[in-house]
Amino acid sequence: MADKTLHDLSKAMRDLDFCMLTTGTGRLTSRPMSNNGDVEYDGDSWFYAYEDSAKIRDIEQDPAVGLSFSEGKSLLGKPGIFIGIEGHAELIRDKAQFEAHWTKSLDRWFPQGTDTPGMILIKVHAERVRYWDGEEEGELRP
């Protein structure tokens, strides 16, 4: 086992634009979500969605979720980094929180910005983070 810190993983996650969010309510379902690489990862991930989506219904039934991040090959041709996060999702409807985590690139999916009707914020608090980078692996509990 290796000893990367949460700060080390945060630096790696800045370059990973998307992750897969997995929910499970009898069946596991994964879908791509945009990762906000502009922030320092501190054990919480933030995602915007539409409130009437299936992922929100899944989270309302069971807030246990998984996130998986991966990067292709490193500059030396070695495997890139893989990060798996087990966490607990919280649904946030507070506009002040929308604005606190907003980035301009989200306008593509939410054309009215933080005023987009039906928008909701998903906060995933990590309970366990596992990583593999081709040379080492480890686990953190933020």
What this model shows, in words?
This protein is an alpha+beta fold and 142 residues long. The chain has a single domain (6-136), classed as Roll (Pnp Oxidase, Chain A), CATH 2.30.110. It is 16% helix and 40% strand. The protein has three helices and seven strands; from the N terminus they run αβββαββαββ. The protein has helices at 6-13, 54-61, 95-101, and strands at 18-24, 28-34, 44-50, 64-70, 82-92, 119-132, 137-140. It starts with 5 loop residues before the first helix and ends with a strand.
Order of H and E elements = HEEEHEEHEE
Number of strands: 7
What's the number of domains? 1
Radius of gyration: 15 Å
In terms of topology, how is this protein built?
Layout: H1 6-13, E1 18-24, E2 28-34, E3 44-50, H2 54-61, E4 64-70, E5 82-92, H3 95-101, E6 119-132, E7 137-140
Antiparallel strand pairs: 1-2, 1-4, 3-6, 4-5, 5-6, 6-7
